[in-house]
Amino acid sequence: MRKIVLDCELTEDFKWMHPCYTFQGKNIVLIHGFKDYCALLFHKGALLKDPHGILVQQTENVQAARQIRFTSVQEIEEKQLILKAYLDEAIEVEKAGLQVDYKKNTEYIIPEELQNKFVEIPDLKTAFEALTPGRQRAYIFHFSEPKQSKTRESRVEKYLPHILDGKGLND
Q: Which Pfam families match (predicted)?
């Protein structure tokens, strides 16, 4: 995969503990290794046409990135020309300055347990709204995940000090 990517005249870097390939300083693609497969992750994959139907959205919450997954070297070799076409398109997307249209945090449903705390502790709502959109989303997803209200409530309680201190979920 590395050879195919480098043939597209991208600059090799190392970000997020993975080989990352850029065009004029903008991230184009990352090589990921997983237990059962390896993948090329296109940072703006949602903007690619995907005529072969091979781009995968890792989870429902991933908005921009898409992967092409491989389970064998033979698979990579067979798709060399297709990969080159996808890489060329990804570079063209970057050259054109296209941007992914991200959902606004207002489009996400804030769990009732967090809304109740906003009413109870007005400073919490102010602190939450001061967080970056990514940190807000991380909390919303984390708090919304459990099926039981009791568990959602305990998660909100646990992270109150973090939010009030302006910290993200993993800070």
A: DUF1801 (PF08818), OmdA (PF13376)
